Amino acid sequence: MKRIILLIAGICAITSVAAQVQVGEGQVSGSLESNTIYYMDDSKIGETPEDRFGSNNYLKVDYSNGRFSAGIQANAFLPVLQGYEDLATGHKFYLASKYIQWQDDNFELMVGDIFDQLGNGLIFRSFEDRQLGLNNSLEGIRGLYNFNNYVQVKGMYGRPRLYTDYADTWVRAADLSVSLSDIFSWDAALFNVEGSYVNRNQSLSLDPMMDFSTSGLTNPNLNMYSGRVNFGWNGLSLRGEYVEKGKDLAATSTTATSGNALLGEVGYSHNTFSVMATFRQLDNMATRLSLYDSGIGNTLNYLPALTRQYTYMLANLNPYQVNTEGEIGGQVDACYSIRNKDDRYRYWNMHVNYSTFYTLHASQTERGKNERLWQDFNFDVERQWNKQLKTIFLYSFQEWNPTHGYKHRTYVSNVFVGDVTYKFNRKNSLRVEAQYLWSDEYEGDWVAGLVEYSMAPKWSIFFSDMYNIDLTKTNYYNGGFSYTHNRTRVQLSYGRNRAGYVCSGGVCRFSPAYTGFNLVLTSSF
Amino acid sequence: MMKRLLSLVCMLMGVVSLSAQQLPDVKIENAQGKIVSMRSIAKGKPMIISYWSITCKPCIQELNAINDALEEWREEADFEVVAISTDDARMKASAKTIASSRGWDFICLYDDKQTLKRAMNVSLTPQSFVVDANGKVVFSHSGYTPGSEQLLFDKILELKKKK
What pLDDT, on a 0 to 100 scale, did the predictor assign at position B13? Predict the structure, then answer.
C-alpha cells in the first residue's frame, strides 16, 4: 500500500504542472508515463506472481534554448511488470537516455542516445517501444548536413543500448540522400536517390565458451548496404529499396549466412480514391545488436509485418509474425469515400485490404515446398448517417500458419465486427461493438462485445468481454474508466487478460495472462 | 528508488515558472514525400495539431469529427489544422491511403521516425495541441471522446478574441 501511495504522490507532483516551464532563457518540457498492475488470484488462468505489484514508469525531461536542446529519460521498474522479465529483474531505476543537440538551418550535431532510422529501417532503426519493452538507441554521436535541399549527408557512431545496459558492439552508419527534383527544379515532382551503409563491429572472442568459427563466422565486422529510390508525381508514388547484408549468425541458426531484402511500393490517389500496393522479400535479415545475447530488445534493424493492424479484439487474436529467415509477399490497401456535397455529416468510407506471405526457401519447410505463412482478406464499410449516428461493419478472413511455415497446416478464421456510435448531444455518446470469430480449427469460435459511454471531454466508462465458446470456455472481461484533464489522462480498469503476442518490427513479446487492477497514467508538461 | 524519482521531480518543480512551449523546429515529411520544417508550416496562423496513427481508432474519430465541423469553424476563424501521423515504416503507406481518401481538408504530415513526437513529449495518442500565430503551444489535450474536438475550437476562438 505504501508503494501505491508513493507512486500516486509522485504522479500528482508531476501532473500539478500542466504547462511547459521556463528556466532562464530556455524552457523545460517533459512527459510521464506510468503503467501499474496489482495482480489478483485467478485459478482460471494460472498462478499469481509472487510480487503482486508491478509498475513500469518513464519520466522524460527536455530543455531547449533556441537552437540548443538537451534531455534525459529515467525509467523506474518498481518492480518490473510480469512478462518484461528480460528487461530487468525486480526493482530497477536507471537513466534510459540522455542527449545534447545543436540544430542549425543546414546542419545538426547530436551527442547522446540517438533514435534514428535509415530508409525503411531494413538495415538500421533505433527506437523505443514501451509496450514491447524495447529501446535500442545508439549511445554516441550523430552529424547531419543539408546542402540547399539538394544533398543530405548523415553519419552516426556509437554503441547500442541492450535492455538496461549497453551491448559490447560498435555501430557506425552513413546515409546519403540526393534530391534530383530539387536540383533540376521539378516543382511538381519528387525524385530522390538515396543510399546507406551500416557496420556492426563486435569481437568474436568475448566469451571463451562460444566458438563462432564452427558456424562459419570469422569476421568481427558485419557490413550492410541499402540503395533506395523515391518518386512522386501527380497522385502517383513509387518507392523501392534493395539491401545487401554480409555474413551473420541469426539467433535461431547454427550457420552464418549473408542476407538481402527487396521492398517495392506503388501508390495512386485521386480525389477520395486511394490505393497502395507493397511487395517485400526478406532473406536472412534478422540482425542482432550483440551475438552474445538474445531476446526481442537485441535487434538492430526493423522488419515489421506488412499486414493490416486491427483495433478490434478478435481480429487481433493471432497476429502475423514475420519469418526473418525468409519470406516473400505483400499487401494491397484501397480506400474510397463517397461524400455528400451539401452535408459534411453524411458519407461512406470503404476500405479493402489483402495481404499474403510465403516462405522464401523450400528448405524452410517440412515438405520441401514453399508454404503459405499468412493470408488476410478484409474490408470495412463506415457510414456516417447524420450528426448523431455512425456505423461500421468489418469482415476479415485470416489464414495463419502456427509453425511459421515449417508444416503445411494452416488455421482459418472469419471475423465479423459491428460498431455503432450514437451521439446524444455535444457531450454524451455511446459506442457499442459486437464481434464474432468463426473457426472450425484451433480454439474454435469466439464472441466479444464492448460498451463505452463517454462524457466529453473528461470522462469515459467502458466494459468489454471476450468469450471462447468451443475450447477454453473462458471469459476475458475488462471494465473501467478514464479521466482526462488537458494533458493528463488516468485510466483505471479491472479485468482478466488473455495471454498473447504483442508484435512490432518483426519481434513479438509474449504477454502472459493475468487478472488484476491496471492503472495507466500519462501526462506531459 | 522511489525517493530518487521524487527528488528528481521536486528539483524540477523548484526551479519553474509557467510559460508556453515553442513549437519545435523538426523536419518532417509532407503528403508529397518532401521534407519540410515544422515552423514553415505555421505561416503566421493559429493551428490545431492532432497526432494520430492507423491503430488509434479515437484519433481517426477525432480527425473525422474536426473535418465534419471544419467548414462551420472556418466561417468564424482563420486557422490551420495539421494531422501528424506517427505510423512507422510498417503502416505509413496505409496512413497515406486513409488520409488521401477521407477528404480531410487539412495538412497531413508523416512523422515515421517519431522525432517530432519525442520533441513534443507525446506519449500517447490522440494528443492535440493548439498553437498560436507565433508558434507557441497554448493548449493541449490527451485522449478523445466524441464532442471533445469542440475544446480545441474554443481555444482558437479565445486566440481570435485576444488579437
Answer: 44
Specify the residue for cell string 500539478. A16
Nearest by CB: B143 against A21, A273, A484: A484
For residue B78, what are the domain limits?
27-162
Please give the class, per CATH, of domain A40-304: mainly beta
Per-residue model confidence as pLDDT tens digits over A8-56: 555 555 554 444 556 667 889 999 999 999 999 998 887 777 789 999 9
What per-residue confidence (pLDDT) applies to A7? 54
CATH number reported for the structural domain that contains residue B135 in this entry: 3.40.30.10
Burial B138-148 (b: 16+ CB within 10 A, else e): bbbbbbbbbbb
Q: Is residue B53 part of a domain?
A: yes
d(CA A425, CA A280): 47
Q: Most A CBs within 10 Å: which of B5, B54, B55, as the mutation test of the A interface?
A: B5
From the list B32, B103, B115, the residue facing A272 with the nearest CB is B103
Residues in chain A: 525
Predicted ipTM?
A: 0.85
Question: What is the share, in percent, of chain B residues with pLDDT greater than 70?
Answer: 88
Q: Check B113 against A116: CB less than 8 A apart.
A: yes
Give B132 to chain A, closest Cα distance, Å: 15
What pLDDT is recorded for position A152?
A: 96
Q: How many domains does chain B have?
A: 1
Determine the residue of chain B that is closest to A348 in CA distance.
B102
Pick the residue from chain B with its C-alpha nearest to A349: B102
Confidence (pLDDT) at A503: 65
pLDDT for residue B6 is more than 60: no
User: Residue B13 is which amino acid?
Assistant: M
Predicted pLDDT at B2: 47
What's chain B's Rg over C-alpha atoms?
17
Instruction: Report yes or no on B7 lying in a domain.
Output: no
Which residue has cell 530497477?
A92
pTM here is 0.89
3-state secondary structure at position B12: helix
Chain-chain contact of A273 with B101 (C-beta, under 8 angstroms): yes
Burial state string for A279-291 with b = 16 or more CB within 10 A and e = fewer than 16: bbbbbbbbbbbbb
CA distance B162 to chain A (A): 19
Model confidence pLDDT, tens digit, residues B126-139: 899 999 998 889 99
Quick one: closest CA in B to A5, which residue? B2
Taking contacts as CB-CB distances below 8 angstroms, the residues of chain B near A425 are: 147
B-chain CB neighbours of A3 within 8 Å are: 2
Residues in chain A with pLDDT < 70? 1-24, 503-508
Evaluate whether residue B133 is within a structural domain: yes
Residue of A29, A115, A192 to mutate when probing chain B, most B C-beta within 10 A:
A29
Asked whether residue B44 is domain-assigned, the answer is yes
Domain residues of chain A, as ranges?
40-304
How is residue A89 annotated by DSSP?
S
